[in-house]
Amino acid sequence: MAGVNKVILVGNLGRDPEMFTFESGNKRARLTLATTETYKNKQGEKVEHTEWHTVLLYRGLADVAEKYLQKGMKVYVEGRLRTRVWEDKGQKRYYVEIEGQDMVMLGGKKDERPMVLKGMEAIPSVPEKAEGEPEYNPEEDPLPF
After folding, report:
1. Which of 40, 15, 3, 11 has its CA nearest to residue 103?
2. How far is CA 137 from the centre of its chain?
3. Are 60 and 48 in contact (CB under 8 A)?
4. How many alpha carbons fall within 13 Å on the CB side of residue 23?
5. 125, 104 in Cβ contact below 8 A?
6. pLDDT tens sequence across 42-59
7. pTM for the structure as a whole
8. What sign does the dihedral 122-128-130-134 (CA atoms) show?
9. Alpha carbon of 49 to those of 72, 89, 92, 97, 136: distances in Å?
């Protein structure tokens, strides 16, 4: 059986994307994403724990990140874990990153309208209403069962 390597994160950007352009012209965006959990400890006190993640976006997603993302924005990211290993003074070192494959901008400073990013295609998550199109009223819609 094949393994599954999937990560889903929803958090806020800790800084503007760091951009890098390869010799080929392709781009990479490095995001610093904070996820925060809230829970009560044994004393009943509310405790927050923030975890920081490094997310890498390539090509079209990197272009979108460069254009639209900035510090403080909330984003949803799907991707996979990637571990880099190197040797430093005789000791193996490990660094874990998330290679982003899909992203949804959940609103923030530049654009309050969520956008779904699948690979290189940006799709508004809430379609715009055409001019003159009537409002949908679920109470007027007969149920099919």
Report:
1. 11
2. 32
3. no
4. 0
5. yes
6. 999 999 999 999 999 999
7. 0.70
8. positive
9. 17, 32, 28, 19, 41
